[in-house]
Design goal:
Blueprint (H helix, E strand, L loop, with lengths): L5 E6 L2 H5 L5 H12 L3 E4 L28 H10 L5 E4 L2 E2 L5 H14 L4 E6 L4 H6 L7 H17 L3 E4 L4 E5 L13 E3 L5 H10 L2 E2 L6 H17 L8 E5 L12 H5 L2 H6 L4 E5 H4 L6 H22 L2
Parallel strand pairs: 1-2, 1-11, 2-3, 3-5, 4-5, 5-8, 8-9, 9-10, 10-11
Antiparallel strand pairs: 6-7
Helix pairs in contact: 2-3, 2-12, 3-4, 4-6, 7-8
Length: about 300
């Protein structure tokens, strides 16, 4: 039975909400699990360089010294205190991690969480992170593809062998493998260009667009579904996680009730998951629980509506 549009919370702004006491994130996960939310997502930066003016999506919304807890480590702590909520990354900068390390860390977390992990990946935007990690910024897209291909093989085969220009291994046992059948779902944070769609069809289980214009989103989802069908894949099994388009109040602050009213249109455009950024709606720690409670209430309403609409 369909549960309707899923609701996800992307955790950000942790410095403002929790200071240096990042154990508050574990309590947040416990609350979200108890309330019945669908997913918690951690963003990723290994470091922030001085050139935040290079941020390609407008003004960078955080100070340079904002804490960015390592996502897989944080999600492991969350997994220990939760039972139901799915745990995700969005986006993990996969080219910064060696494939063996990434495959092992992700598979281990999937097993420890009972098969609740979604791996959302992208390539980032800071040359400094790549330089500091010993990786080539200019080769980030090719490295992303090769890393994900290698992870797929390591999760599938035992022993596993893989060869490309950057990585080579033969008959390696990389255990444990993921609990989820077929490996951990990979969600791609890429544009729906011709190359991006090919990347989704080959390597992805879901898409995380920056696009929130509903007409453009619907057209892109249509192109992706056509490409999946042509490749013999089921479009209904492919997820689309989209940031809920913000409605602003008179003070230009995100207004939750108005934003929630747009969920039906977002689902009609092809979204399967609506994402809410914690920092957009919560300025103080005491606002976190009411925010999660309101999302949980809306989640229950969406589920009831879906049940009524089911044949």
């Amino acid at each position: 039975m369909s549960r309707g549009l899923a609701l996800s919370v992307t955790i950000s702004g942790v410095g403002r909400l929790y200071g240096r006491n990042l154990l508050g994130l574990v309590e947040l996960a416990r609350m979200a699990d108890d309330l019945g939310l669908d997913q918690l997502v951690m963003a990723d930066h290994l470091a922030i360089g001085p050139r935040t003016d290079r941020y390609p999506y407008g003004r960078f919304p955080f100070a340079a010294d904002e804490p960015w807890p390592e996502p897989l480590t944080t999600l492991a702590a969350m997994a220990a205190v939760t039972k139901h909520v799915r745990l995700g990354t969005g986006v993990l900068i996969a080219p910064l991690r060696p494939p063996l390390q990434l495959a092992k860390s992700v598979a281990t977390l999937d097993v420890l969480s009972g098969g609740r992990l979604d791996l959302g990946v992208g390539v980032g935007w800071q040359p400094e992170e790549f330089c500091g990690s010993g990786s080539e910024f200019e080769a980030r897209w090719a490295r992303l593809d090769d890393t994900l291909r290698a992870c797929r093989v390591l999760w599938r085969d035992s022993p596993a062998s893989f060869s490309c220009e950057r990585f080579h291994f033969e008959e390696l046992w990389c255990e444990p493998r993921p609990q989820q059948e077929g490996g951990v779902p990979i969600w791609l944070g890429v544009a729906a260009t011709e190359r991006g769609v090919r990347r989704m069809v080959e390597l992805g289980d879901g898409w995380m667009p920056l696009e929130t214009d509903l007409e453009a989103l619907g057209a892109a989802v249509g192109r992706i579904h056509q490409a999946l069908l042509a490749a013999g894949r089921d479009p209904d099994a492919f997820g689309v996680r989209v940031a809920a388009p913000l409605v602003l109040d008179a003070d230009r602050r995100p207004e939750l009730e108005g934003t929630l009213e747009g969920l039906a249109a977002l689902e009609a455009a092809g979204a399967t998951v609506a994402s809410f950024t914690l920092a957009a709606f919560c300025r103080h720690r005491d606002e976190v629980r009411p925010f999660l409670e309101r999302l949980a209430s809306e989640r229950g309403r969406l589920e009831r509506s879906s049940e009524k609409a089911a044949p």
